[in-house]
Amino acid sequence: MKRLLWLLLVGIVAVGMLLVGCTGGGPEKIQVATDATWAPFEYVDTETEEIVGFDIDLFDAIADRADLDFEYVNVAWEPLLAGMATGTYDAAISSITITPERAAEMNFSHPYFAAGQIIVILKSTTDITGPETLSGKSVGVQTGTTGDDLATSINGTDVRRYDEIGLAFVALTTDQIDAVICDNPVAAGYVAQDDTLKTVGEPLTSEEYGIAVAKGEEELLEKINTALDELLAEGIIEELIEEWLTG
């Protein structure tokens, strides 16, 4: 009798494990990619080793409103875009400019921030006054960004590509290149931290950031947009701008 009960118990446990394996143990966490090298929007706090920034606070607030179970995946910029195009990640927030080319491979939320590309040089540089004076100059950009696209479009520019925008600024401050082109709020952050740097003129482009969502994830996109619209209406994004960009 005891042996029969034991075999019955083992069978029940085995069936239970099989059912868990078939169902995947419930809904999996949403994978949200970010390239945490783009302060003040997303970067790794060296003290806590946590990913922090404007975008991170924004998505945390969206996830709270939309009741999303998620985790961040810190990934380099080009693999991030490739992963979104192939559906490796469910979503991504990483100062991603909405472009027609990217929109063909992934969906985008409503825009949440307006930015533009701007030139950064050393204060000691006097012969770079705008894009028309970059011919023959070496310009650092982060590979695959809209800053890369802009620099490449300027005739005669020697474009130097880096995996992280911080590496471009290191090259600039050590006289390895003549200028950097990147998003204006990111440029402002580096200029504020280093008094040897300055920006040149006004932003050269008009761009909008959006949260990328994998194709086929329409329900997730709707949840993100609904929460994002609420946060915009309530002034939460303005508060984040004050905290991270002008505070």
CATH class of the largest domain: Alpha Beta
Counted beta strands = 15
CA radius of gyration is 23 Å
Query: Helix share of residues?
Result: 40-55%
CATH homologous superfamily label of the largest domain: Periplasmic binding protein-like II
* CATH architecture designation of the largest domain: 3-Layer(aba) Sandwich
The percent range for strand residues is: 15-25%
Average pLDDT figure:
90
Low-confidence spans: 1-24
CATH topology term of the largest domain: D-Maltodextrin-Binding Protein, domain 2
Approximate shape: globular
Individual helix count: 9
Q: How many domain units?
A: 2
Could you describe the 3D structure shown?
- The protein starts with a helix and ends with a helix.
- Helix 5 links the parallel strand 10 and strand 11.
- The chain contains 9 helices and 15 strands.
- It has 247 residues and is of the alpha/beta class.
- The chain is globular, with a radius of gyration of 23 Å.
- Strands 5-1-6-15-7 form a 5-stranded mixed β-sheet. The protein has a 5-stranded mixed β-sheet with strand order 11-10-12-9-13, sandwiched between helices.
- Helices cover 42% and strands 22% of the residues.
- The N terminus is likely disordered.
- It folds into 2 domains: 123 residues, 3-Layer(aba) Sandwich (D-Maltodextrin-Binding Protein, domain 2); 84 residues, D-Maltodextrin-Binding Protein, domain 2.
